Structures are given as C-alpha cells and as structure tokens.
C-alpha cells in the first residue's frame, strides 16, 4: 500500500518475510478537543527519517531488520465502521506471530485491534497495559460508546477488568471515579509513577496481570506536554520519555502488539511526531534484539 519514501524509515522488508509490521490508521472521527490525529501516521513516518537506524543503547540496527510498512487503512467514515472493518486489515498483519505496531489516529482504534488479537490467541492469555493521562473509562461520550473517551471501559468489558492496567493517569470525571471504584480498575496515577521506580512498578503490573501476552497502548498524552505538546487533549504533570522507554524495555518480551495514538500534527511543533517515531524504533529494537 505504501509508496517508497512514505514508509517508516527502513521498513522495507516484504510482508511475507517481516517480523514487525507497521500500519497507519488515519482516523480522528470522535476527537473531542483538538482533532488532526488522522494526519499523524504521515507525520510520524516523515520524522522517522531523522534518527540513526542504529540504536546505540541496544546495539541494534533496524536498517536490515525484517520490518514491513503496510501503509494506511482506508479512511473510515465513522467509528462504527472503524470498529467493524479494522479487524480485516489487522488479521493479515498479525498472522504468523508478526508484531504489529499501529500508528493512530485517535484512541478509538485500540478496541478493534485488541479484539483481533483475542481472536488469534487464547483470550485468557492476554492483558492490556494502557499508558494515558486519561482513564478513557466513560460508559458513553457524546452519545458514542466507541468514542476515544470510552476505550478503556470497552476493553475492560472485552478482556475483563482484571486484565487491564492504566498507567500515568491524571484526569478523569466524577462518573469515571465512581465506575472505577465499582469495577476495581487497577491504575497508577502520574504522581505515583513520578515518585516511584518505574521498573519496579511495571514488574508489579506484570505480576498483577499474570498473563503470558501483553498488548501495549500508548496515548502520547501520557507524557507531559513539555515533551509531547501536539496531542488531542494535553494534560500537565505527566510522565517523561524515560519512564516510557524503561517500561518498553521491560515489557518487550511479553508484547504481542502495540499502538501509539493521539498525536495531533496541527498542534505539534514536530517534536511529538518525532518522539512517537523514536518510540516505534525503541519498540522494534527491543522486540527484535537477541
Ligand atoms: Mn486515550
Ligand atoms: Mn488521553
């Protein structure tokens, strides 16, 4: 699907030989504040050319690594179409245990991705780690239950609330506070993360989930706006890129897939897209090294 030059840097292996697949989902149909995340896949790919293909920290060169950029999905006209149709594309990307990295788009893309992973693995083996400033735990938002603001709630219903952990939270409504108390969602506030040893906290999360396979979703607004200003709903007092990098290093062996969502290029100075591209490189390196 992707043209040469519009692909993620060095992601030029054929799909059949690839161990990592990159997919863009240019959808921002339920954005509530700053829209524009539909432009993120193109911007993040563009910024990927800034970085060396050799990641010195991991002594890993992604230049000749088996990575395929399958391009973007079509532009879905509604969130219900996205939820219904995205799995078709996801299936071909994750067969043969390929590791899929999906670039959003807004957070609503995560539900159909996890749904497809559940179809292709034993559902009881899968847990979700949800990096986000927001809980996204509303029953419904603006009359839309598949809104980006309801994704963690839908995921909790799908995988079981005991198989999802939110990290970096610092914004939720009174309704969500009540729901998470009733449903006993496990989450770590950003202030707790900032005062803890992140590696310890992630290991504790893995013990709690007690599953073989982890799906990782990264809403870029989990980071402080000082690092990631160009997001749909910025929230201050956030995490640092070091937190997220440390978490990825620990999680990599368990990961079956990941997404990076909510980068909004019209509100960005280029840095948020570049940082997202760097996290994709970090995910690839940690997944493929050794
Ligand atoms: Mn979110
Ligand atoms: Mn968020």
Low-confidence stretches: none
Largest sheet: 8 strands, parallel
Strand content: 15-25%
What is the percent of helical residues?
Answer: 25-40%
Fourth-tier CATH superfamily name: Ureohydrolase domain
Strand order of the largest sheet: 4-1-5-10-9-6-7-8
Q: How many distinct helices?
A: 9
What is the count of β-strands?
10
Would you give the CATH topology?
A: Arginase, Chain A
Number of separate domains: 1
Classify the oligomer.
Answer: single chain
The CATH level-2 architecture is identified as 3-Layer(aba) Sandwich
What are the distinct ligands in this entry? manganese (II) ion
Q: Output the radius of gyration.
A: 17 Å
Instruction: Give me the strand/helix succession.
Output: EHEEEHEHEHEHEHHEHEH
Distance between the termini: 30 Å
Question: What's the arrangement of secondary structure elements?
Answer:
Layout: E1 20-25, H1 40-47, E2 54-55, E3 60-61, E4 67-72, H2 79-94, E5 99-104, H3 110-120, E6 126-131, H4 151-159, E7 164-169, H5 174-183, E8 186-189, H6 190-195, H7 198-209, E9 213-219, H8 241-251, E10 255-261, H9 271-288
Parallel strand pairs: 1-4, 1-5, 5-10, 6-7, 6-9, 7-8, 9-10
Antiparallel strand pairs: 2-3
Helix pairs in contact: 1-9, 2-3, 3-4, 7-8, 8-9
């Amino acid at each position: 699907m992707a043209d040469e030059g519009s692909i993620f840097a060095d992601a030029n292996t054929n799909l059949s030989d690839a161990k990592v697949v990159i997919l863009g989902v240019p959808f921002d149909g339920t954005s509530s504040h700053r829209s524009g995340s539909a432009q993120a896949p193109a911007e993040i790919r563009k910024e990927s050319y800034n970085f060396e293909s050799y990641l010195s920290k991991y002594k890993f060169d992604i230049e000749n690594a088996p990575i395929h950029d399958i391009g973007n999905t079509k532009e879905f006209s509604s969130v219900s179409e996205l939820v219904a149709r995205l799995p078709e594309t996801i299936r071909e990307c994750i067969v043969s245990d390929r590791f899929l990295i999906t670039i959003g788009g807004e957070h609503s893309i995560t539900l159909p991705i996890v749904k497809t992973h559940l179809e292709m693995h034993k559902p009881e083996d899968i847990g979700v780690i949800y990096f986000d400033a927001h809980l996204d735990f509303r029953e419904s938002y603006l009359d839309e239950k598949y809104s980006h603001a309801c994704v963690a709630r839908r995921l909790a219903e799908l995988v079981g609330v005991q198989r999802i952990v939110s990290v970096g939270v610092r914004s939720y409504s009174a309704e969500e506070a009540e729901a998470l108390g009733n449903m006993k969602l496990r989450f770590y506030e950003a202030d707790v993360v900032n005062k803890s040893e992140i590696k310890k906290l992630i290991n504790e999360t893995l013990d709690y989930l007690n599953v073989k396979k982890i799906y990782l979703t990264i809403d870029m607004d989990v980071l402080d706006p000082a690092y990631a200003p160009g997001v749909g709903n910025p929230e201050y007092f956030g995490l640092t890129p070091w937190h997220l990098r440390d978490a990825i290093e620990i999680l990599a062996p368990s990961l079956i897939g990941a997404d990076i969502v909510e980068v909004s290029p019209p509100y960005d100075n280029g840095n948020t897209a570049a940082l997202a591209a760097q996290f994709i490189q970090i995910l690839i390196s940690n997944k493929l090294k050794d």
